[in-house]
Amino acid sequence: MPVAVEIDVADVMNKGRMGPFQLVTLALCAMCMIVDGFDVQAISYVAPAIVREWHIAKASLGPVFSASLAGMLLGSLAFTPLADRLGRRPVLIASTLLLAAFTAATPLAASVGQLIAWRLLAGLSLGAIIPNAVALASEYSPPSIRVSVMMIVSVGFVLGGLISGTSAAWLIPAFGWHAVFYVGAVVPLLSAALMAVALPESMQFLIVRQRHREKVRKWLARVDPALPIGEHTVFVVRERANPGSPVLNLFRDGKAMGTLLLWAMNFSNLLCVFFLANWLPLLMNDAGHSTSLAVMAGAAMWCGGIASNLLLGRVVERFGFTAVLTCSFIAAGLAMASIGEVRGVAWLALAAIFVAGFCVLGNQTALNALAATYYPTSIRATGMGWALGSGRLGSIVGPVVGGVLLRLRWPTEQLFFCATIPLVVAVVAVLMFDRLSLPAGQDAREQLDGRAPEALDGGAR
């Protein structure tokens, strides 16, 4: 009787190098992020054209912006548990197809109410994309560069926003605002087609769920053709499936405190991100700067985010999440407070905004990577989705709080100083996470899903 040969799938992924198969997978994940970023930013770029064409007040579009964010919040909470039951691949493909459909329908809106409905539905689709794309990227990268890979893949979100703005600047004068959404529908449609052909499922997920072992056999052979894979090969992972609700499992096995602290970090950080994104141009205008410089201020923030996503991953892998996030949140607070003080001097203001964008946007991607590292395969998408969902709530609160304080005629210096308070909360949450998130008596390597020591160097501790 032939002897069964065991192959640990996680070990193969941890010890292997990045080959063409993994690179294609990561490229498709990055494409998902670009699609997400394009659609999120598109509505803000077409807003002036809609106001002119429909002869409505600018304030009328406020609920439209909120609808997208609310949809993303609900999508993160509702659809990511499905990915931990059905798989990353089907949820990513389905979400992208639905996004294409709802984006194509957006130009058909004839009223603000219809526009709100379509943007809410598009937001629901968007809410499932980031957690699953980042989770899949983490599962197809070796631990020594896993955080860097997740952060580089996440650059796609910022690039999508920049591509959206560049496309809108050309499409709107030539074809009208409707064309931005038609282009925005074609891109996810093509992405879904490519994913249907070339995107693999998480092999760890399939083994944990005991499904499609033939597919695991095929994909693992592409990762490492030298593996002795035969008819009697048995594939294993050092993890068991967690029965019951994926959401409830976020609070079991000693993960409750870590889950709540991750939610607090995401809420605080995204509150600051969207406070800056929504109010920077207006506040720079109020400081006496031209409209073009006010737009440059917004661009400086996103350029800072691109730089941090490209650079911060290696720093996290060297010094760990706790040290990097603590320093970055403190630096973000100092930069935010400085914006209000130096806003009258253009180059100083742009420098402070760049640093603030570098920190808060880099922090958000690092928090996504931290959640992907903290949760095991069986609840990874749910853990990331619900952490991001709490952040989406912060993204809704941030602009609203800014508007309330502006109506109360708070000085700009006090506005930016007030925006540092959530960052103080985030620092406290990071330090508490470092101390309290691991269950007493449980080995850190077991808690972090059997990752190699290289991964733990960039882990929570």
Description:
By secondary structure, the chain is an all-alpha fold. It folds into 2 domains: 1-238, Growth Hormone, Chain: A, CATH 1.20.1250; 239-461, MFS general substrate transporter like domains (Growth Hormone, Chain: A), CATH 1.20.1250. Helix content is 77%, strand content 2%. It is built from 20 helices and 2 strands. It has helices at residues 9-15, 20-54, 62-86, 88-105, 112-126, 129-139, 146-175, 178-198, 203-208, 213-223, 246-249, 256-286, 291-319, 321-342, 346-374, 380-407, 412-418, 421-436, 444-447, 453-457; strands spanning 5-8, 233-236. Strands 1-2 form a two-stranded parallel ribbon. Helix 3 runs antiparallel to helix 16, helix 6 (129-139) packs across helix 15 and helix 6 packs across helix 16 (380-407). It is globular and about 70 Å long. It starts with a strand and ends with a helix. It is found in: Membrane. This is MFS transporter. InterPro entries: MFS (IPR011701), MFS_dom (IPR020846), MFS_trans_sf (IPR036259), Sugar_transporter_CS (IPR005829). The chain crosses the membrane at residues 23-47, 59-79, 91-110, 116-137, 149-173, 179-199, 260-280, 292-312, 319-339, 345-363, 414-433. GO terms for molecular function: carboxylic acid transmembrane transporter activity.
